[in-house]
Amino acid sequence: MTGHSSHASIKGFFMKFSRTLLAVFFLTNTAFAKEDGFNIGTVDMQRIILTVDEGKEARSKLEAEIKAKESEFLKQKQELDKMNKDWKDQSPLLSEEARIRKQQEFQEKFVQLRNSEMEFQAEIKKKENQETQKIAVKVSGLVTTLADEKKLDAVFETNSSGLMYAKQRVDLTEDVIKKYNASSPVKPSESKEKKPDPNS
User: Fold this and answer.
1) What's the first-to-final CA gap in the chain, in angstroms?
2) How many domains does the chain have?
3) What is residue 34's predicted lDDT score, i.e. its pLDDT?
4) Are residues 131 and 105 in contact, defined by beta-carbon separation less than 8 angstroms?
5) Cα 26–chain centre separation
6) What CATH number does the domain containing 48 carry?
7) Helical H segments across 91-162, by residue range
8) CB-based contacts of 64: which residues, under 8 Å, 6+ apart?
9) Is residue 196 part of a domain?
């Protein structure tokens, strides 16, 4: 698991998973559209999840967790590389039994490391899933409120609805982001250093 691929996978997961959360969000039965026009709203879930403060904070924490774990895995890989090199250098001097024992020891540690990496990836994916679902639930409520305020007949998710064109369309994305951040403020991370007061 490399740093670049891990960080890219976080962003990719949020974007991919968001497409399934608000696929087509109908507020009223489309069969009863108004005679004077069918007012359609759109919401870009990808942008919302990647933009709201709560989403940014969640990704920041996951990236920090991944970075720390990657450092631990790298150290273990380096130890395995040294073990493998030592085994090869000492192999001519070892008995057949000793060579087999050292080879088995290396293979066991290698398998343990691979299992640890896969377990960690599954854990990160689960956390990403939970954070995204939490945001999606709040967004759904905000979309309902905004659609009612703007007298919309239906709201589609931009990336998954298949909607290519709508003459009368209202993009709620920016309004949702503003309302989301206002209703779910994120406290500054304790790890962030406070900026010095220029007046002090």
Assistant:
1) 45
2) 1
3) 44
4) no
5) 26
6) 3.30.910.20
7) 96-149
8) 191
9) no
